[in-house]
Structure formats: structure tokens, C-alpha cells
Amino acid sequence: MTDLASSGRTQRPEFRNINALTDLPSYKLPPAGIVSILHRVSGAILFVLMPFIIWMFDASVSSEFSFARFTHVFAAGVGFLPGWFIKLVALAIIWSYLHHFAAGIRHLFMDINHDAVTKQFGRSSALTVLAVSLLLTAVLGAKLFGLY
């Protein structure tokens, strides 16, 4: 067994009893951990908003009248909810779908290529997932809010 001091490596801190108030704020989560948590969050958002997703799909394809009502909801709102809030909910669904899809592809690739999975690959693929999902969300959000 080699001594840590002779190998030039420093001993990593060992946390046995984690104090949520003192230890968690100083913990730096790696990008792969962030993507993993966001993958779960995006799945939960898609699950919770599934009735809204089904309503949007049904209203957009049922008839011309339902499509006109659908576009009116996004333009003027419905009830006490303004149109911009409905668009924000739709933007959350867009981000959730794109992030969940990109992270799912990342997980499938890692499941298929066990030999290619390294710490550096985990970091770079996580940053790629974050960049792709945010960039595509920004593009589609700009279209949703009528910027082009």
C-alpha cells in the first residue's frame, strides 16, 4: 500500500455525517451530476404537465375552430392567466422535452459504450447536453414569443 504523501496525491476530505447547513453550500456538483438531476426534473415536469400537453395537441389538430381558440389562448390568455404566462409554461415544456431527450441520448450512449465512458467524457457530454438543450430552447423560445 502506497503512502499518499509519497505518491504526490492529497487526501480527499471524507464526509461521514453531512451537516446540510455547513457542508452542502460548499459542495460543488460536477456537470454530470447537474445533468442527472435536471434529467429527473425535466421528466417530472413532462409528467406533471402531460394534461396541458395533451390539450395543446388536441386543440391544435382537432378543427379550425379549436386551432383558433388554441392560438387565442396563447395570444390573449385564458381566465386570469395572461398569454405570456401560457407561453412560459409552453417554454418550460419545450426545455423539458429537449433536455430530457438530449440527456436520454447521452445515457443511452454511455450504456452502449462502457469502454468510452471516462470522467472527461462524462464532463464534456454533460456540458454538451446543457449547451444543446439551452441553445435549442432559446431558438424555439424566440419563435414562440414572436421574435422572428
Q: How large a portion of the residues is in β-strands, by DSSP E?
A: under 5%
CATH homologous superfamily name?
Fumarate reductase/succinate dehydrogenase, transmembrane subunit
| Stretches with pLDDT under 50, minimum 5 residues | none
- Averaged pLDDT, please? 89
Identify the overall geometry: elongated
Alpha carbon gyration radius: 22 Å
Tally of DSSP β-strands: 0
User: Given the helix and strand composition, which structural class is it?
Assistant: mainly alpha
Quickly count the domains.
1
- Largest sheet, strands/sense/barrel: none
- Quick one: CATH class? Mainly Alpha
Question: Notable features of this structure?
Answer:
3 helical TM bundles of succinate and fumarate reductases, 148 residues, 70% helix
Description:
- Helices cover 70% and strands 0% of the residues.
- The chain has one domain: Fumarate reductase/succinate dehydrogenase, transmembrane subunit (3 helical TM bundles of succinate and fumarate reductases).
- The model has no long low-confidence stretch (mean pLDDT 89).
- With 148 residues, the chain is an all-alpha fold.
- It has six helices and no strands.
- It is elongated and about 75 Å long.
- It starts with a helix and ends with a helix.
